[in-house]
Design a protein that fits this description.
Layout: H1 2-11, H2 16-20, E1 25-26, E2 33-34, H3 37-97, H4 116-131, E3 135-139, E4 143-148, E5 152-161, E6 179-181, E7 184-186, H5 194-214, E8 220-227, H6 235-243, E9 249-251
């Protein structure tokens, strides 16, 4: 990095010990001194190296200062943008949460391979993407994506999902009517993963507005992938990889980024036991789905 290079140059020091060994000889009847040619050449070389290092350090420091200034400006623009669009963000999360997008293969049909709920949520998400200025595409109901085309076809992408696990018991509010309470959002999918999906699209909107204002496209294409089958078998990802090339860089805002930034897959098992001959099971409880925490 620029900072490390600057530190490297700062740590470079002239060989003072070597210079101190040089013997200066007085010239009679003069205020000047004389040194051996070899010693003079050594001093000259060291001085030139020092000056060159100083110049490089100065250029690097200027570049670092310019980069820090640009980053500070960008952060300020992002803060202003977030304040401006935040009410819209909350409204869109609420709209997406209102769909009970639980897999229902018994009701699956063409363009709705995961059932009507995921289909409705995917339609809602693609509508939000269009409003954000992104080019939205429906992939036969398996999933969708939205692009902000760049100068290059290489893609920097995110992948979130709009399906949810069954709501299960224990709710004190309607899980599909988002509630805003004391700075919290309550609703099925607010965290996993409808909220992050909406935020991904609004990140795309930020850059879409910059492109529109400046007329300068991003270096790479930005793609927001919207899955609809993450909570069960990830059939949406399997479909995507069979029909589209992998992005050049991708992460998922589905967990505590950057500690978790991707998923390798799912694993579940069925447990059985011998028949209880002398006794009875008084109570047993599990989650509403294989990947739900029992409670």
């Amino acid at each position: 990095t620029l900072g490390k290079q600057i530190e490297k140059f700062q740590n470079q020091q002239v060989d003072i010990a070597a210079i101190e060994k040089i013997e200066a000889k007085s010239i009679p009847f003069s205020s000047k001194v004389a040194v051996e040619r070899e010693d003079f050449d050594r001093i000259s070389t060291l001085a030139k190296k020092y000056v060159a290092a100083e110049k490089r350090e100065s250029k690097l420091q200027k570049a670092l200062d310019a980069a820090n200034k640009l980053i500070a400006k960008l952060k300020a623009e992002i803060d202003e943008y977030v304040d401006r669009v935040w009410p819209e963000v909350l409204d869109d999360i609420e709209s997406l949460v209102s769909h009970r997008s639980v897999e229902d293969l018994a009701a699956a049909e063409d363009n709705a391979p995961w059932g009507p709920g995921p289909r409705e949520a995917l339609d809602e998400a693609l509508c939000i993407a269009n409003v954000c200025g992104l080019d939205a595409h429906d992939c036969d109901g398996y999933l969708g994506y939205a692009d902000l085309p760049g100068k290059s076809d290489k893609q920097i992408a995110t992948i979130a999902h709009v399906d949810v696990v069954p709501e299960g018991p224990g709710w004190h509010t309607d899980p599909y009517q988002m509630v805003r309470r004391d700075g919290w959002l309550l609703g099925r999918g607010v965290i996993d993963d409808k909220g992050p999906a909406v935020l991904s699209m609004y990140a795309g909107r930020f850059f879409a507005e910059r492109v529109e204002d400046s007329g300068e496209r991003l270096p790479y294409t930005l793609r927001v992938i919207l899955g609809a089958n993450e909570e069960t078998n990830m059939g949406d990802v399997e479909y995507y990889l069979a029909h589209y090339p992998e992005p050049d860089f991708l992460f998922t805002p589905d967990a505590e980024f950057p500690v978790s930034y991707g998923e390798k897959g799912l694993y579940d098992a069925t447990l059985t036991s011998k028949r209880f001959e002398d006794g009875a099971i008084v109570d047993i409880e599990g989650g509403a789905a294989p990947n739900a925490v029992p409670g």
